[in-house]
């Protein structure tokens, strides 16, 4: 009997993985603060707030692995990010420790490194340069995962997802895009490799203009198959006029690096 937990299951990526990982393990336990509809064959649904430590302890009980997608996925107020991404991610790791879960995929983000210049080549050793409080919260999640690995041996793939959407919607995404199919194959590799350790992986397809190099995580054995080249001649991308002085163009984080700070009300 094997059971994988997906947090954030009502979100954009959660819905995709609910389909693409169906039947991969005996049971998919799906969780979100929002409704997830009806349970399908092989599914368990548990609705809860990741900020609720008692609920998350119950949620993680009996799971063999966790795909942790849940939380604020865009810049927001500090209070909202605090509950979902800071407290929530701590609750997931602490529950994993107490319930004996040995492996987690943490949905980190390119916004951990978003203030590096566009075009600069990065790998897993590049310095964190978050472009938002959201990016800072993902950097915290990565550090938490590193600590739980060194202290307790819980293995994590911290996947710095680029832009995981059906297509590349703008020129920046020609560098940052990852297909749903490549994300699915990465997840399978992460849970199947013998030794994962604590690994930082850039979640990006095989794009000709990618800024990110995964040679340091070759042990995972993941080779993305798709490429943003498919979208390079789309009319909306060819028509896009970029101002090289615009922070959204200058920095890898795009609009996040240009957006400014969200004030708490
Ligand atoms: P999304 O915003 O569509 O989904 C996130 C889900 O988390 C939502 O269903 C939301 O209800 C849930 N959630 C928020 N706060 C919660 C709480 N306190 N308790 C329980 N659930 C809560 O985001 P998406 O696009 O599906 O992304 C999934 C993960 O991947 C996020 O962590 C995001 O930061 C990360 N990511 C996604 C990228 C992408 O291109 N889609 C790029 C980089 C990172
Ligand atoms: C992210 O971290 C967001 O969750 C996603 O919605 C996109 O904005 C993505 O980064 C991106 O940089 O394209």
Automatic annotation (TrEMBL):
Keyword NAD recorded: yes
UniProt-listed InterPro entries: Epimerase_deHydtase, NAD(P)-bd_dom_sf
Family to which this protein belongs: Belongs to the NAD(P)-dependent epimerase/dehydratase family.
Swiss-Prot/TrEMBL keywords: NAD, Oxidoreductase
Domain of life: Bacteria
GO molecular function: oxidoreductase activity
Residue span(s) of domain NAD-dependent epimerase/dehydratase: 4-165
Protein name: NAD-dependent dehydratase
One protein family per Pfam: Epimerase
Organism listed in the record: Leucothrix arctica
Coiled coil: none
Gene3D superfamilies given in the database record: NAD(P)-binding Rossmann-like Domain
Keyword Zinc: no
């Amino acid at each position: 009997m094997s059971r994988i937990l997906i947090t954030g299951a009502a979100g954009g990526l959660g819905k995709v993985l609910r389909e693409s990982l169906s039947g991969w393990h005996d049971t998919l336990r799906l969780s979100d603060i929002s409704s997830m509809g009806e349970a399908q064959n092989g599914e368990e649904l548990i609705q809860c707030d990741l900020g609720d430590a008692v609920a998350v302890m119950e949620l993680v009980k009996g799971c063999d692995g966790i795909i942790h997608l849940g939380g604020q996925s865009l810049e927001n107020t500090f209070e909202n990010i605090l509950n979902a991404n800071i407290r929530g991610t701590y609750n997931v790791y602490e529950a994993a420790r107490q319930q004996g879960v040995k492996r987690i995929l943490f949905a980190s983000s390119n916004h951990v490194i978003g203030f590096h210049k566009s075009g600069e080549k990065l790998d897993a050793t590049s310095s964190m340069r978050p472009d938002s409080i959201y990016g800072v919260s993902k950097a915290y999640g990565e550090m938490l995962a590193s600590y739980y690995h060194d202290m307790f041996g819980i293995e994590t793939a911290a996947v710095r997802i680029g832009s995981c959407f059906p297509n590349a919607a703008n020129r920046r995404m020609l560098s940052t895009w990852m297909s749903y199919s490549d994300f699915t194959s990465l997840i399978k590799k992460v849970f199947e490799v013998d030794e994962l350790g604590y690994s930082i992986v850039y979640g990006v397809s095989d794009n000709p203009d990618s800024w990110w190099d995964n040679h340091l995580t070759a042990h995972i054995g993941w080779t993305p198959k798709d490429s943003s080249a498919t979208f390079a001649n789309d009319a909306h991308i060819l028509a896009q006029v970029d101002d090289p002085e615009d922070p959204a163009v200058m920095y890898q984080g795009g609009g996040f690096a240009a957006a400014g700070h969200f004030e708490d009300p």
